[in-house]
Amino acid sequence: MSAAQHILRRLQTDPRLAYLIGPGTQSYELLTREVADASGRDVAELRASVEKTLKTEQWPSLRDAKDTRQDLLQALQGALESMETGVTSLGVIRAARAAIAKATGGAL
Asked: CB atoms < 10 A from the CB of 98, how many?
């Protein structure tokens, strides 16, 4: 597998990479042309095939990252305070989990 083929496959599995170097970028034009030439495929056909299932996801901004960090710190602080006071109610645990899930996009 060539480097170009590898990167094209990564685009199809990594929405953030696809956002950065996907359709509409010079990198994508060069990449798909290289893969098409190497495989003997028509470049327009290859691009159409790739793009019909391609997903993109914008990278978080610095502000989003700072907000996420703050939300996580608040959730952890709340959980620690609850543990220190011996209050470990299900509601406190659920609230902490919800704040962490919100801050991490559900990846808990």
From this structure: 12
